[in-house]
């Protein structure tokens, strides 16, 4: 057969992007803007974009019936967040050397409080990674559990009589709205 390509040209032989490339470029542009606003430079954009697409695809796959969302595994979610924490810490140490630890101490802190503040800030630094892993896990589990409960309820309702079937249209519209919300959260 003919080889297919995703390249589309108009009559003047100019490349026309297809829907998928427009979507990916829009995502890239949005993430690029966020990275520039938050970090100030684009050096980490490939990693952040790849991480975003990995989490997005992982969560969207979970919305397909009879598939598994890997982010509903707490080991994956926390492992991912702590792997990133370790990478960011190594990067911070390689760029800032020993000065990296000064980020844990607010300026103007009395010398007597420095050991206590370093301990508190270190715990906060580690808790942030743990918290992000738990939040990703909890959001995915809660959404999928809610959909499973509602779909089971609707199945039982739809298998009833005609009057119950008509009354089920109201909860079914709510189910569709929640499914749309779950897709948006993914």
From TrEMBL:
Membrane topology: Multi-pass membrane protein
Primary location: mitochondrion
Top-rank lineage group of the source organism: Eukaryota
Entry GO MF terms: proton-transporting ATP synthase activity, rotational mechanism
Location in the cell: Mitochondrion inner membrane
Transmembrane segments: 43-62, 74-95, 101-124, 136-155, 161-185
One GO cellular component term: proton-transporting ATP synthase complex
Keyword Transmembrane helix set for record: yes
CDD domains in the record: ATP-synt_Fo_a_6 (cd00310)
PANTHER family: ATP SYNTHASE SUBUNIT A
Family: Belongs to the ATPase A chain family.
Stated name of the protein: ATP synthase subunit a
Organism for this UniProt entry: Tylopilus felleus
């Amino acid at each position: 057969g003919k080889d297919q390509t995703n390249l589309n040209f108009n009559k003047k032989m100019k490349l026309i992007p297809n829907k998928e490339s427009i979507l990916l470029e829009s995502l890239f542009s949005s993430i690029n803007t966020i990275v520039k606003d938050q970090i100030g430079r684009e050096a980490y954009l490939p990693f952040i974009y790849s991480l975003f697409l990995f989490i997005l695809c992982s969560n969207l796959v979970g919305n397909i019936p009879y598939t598994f969302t890997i982010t509903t595994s707490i080991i994956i979610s926390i492992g991912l967040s702590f792997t990133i924490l370790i990478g960011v810490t190594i990067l911070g140490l390689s760029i800032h050397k020993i000065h990296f630890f000064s980020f844990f101490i607010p300026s103007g802190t009395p010398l007597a409080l420095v050991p206590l503040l370093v301990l508190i800030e270190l715990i906060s630094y580690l808790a942030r990674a743990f918290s992000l892993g738990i939040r990703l896990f909890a959001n995915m589990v809660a959404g999928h559990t809610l959909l499973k409960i509602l779909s089971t309820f609707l199945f039982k309702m739809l298998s009833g009589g005609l009057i119950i079937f008509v009354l089920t249209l109201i909860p079914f519209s709510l189910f569709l709205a929640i499914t749309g919300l779950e897709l948006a959260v993914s």
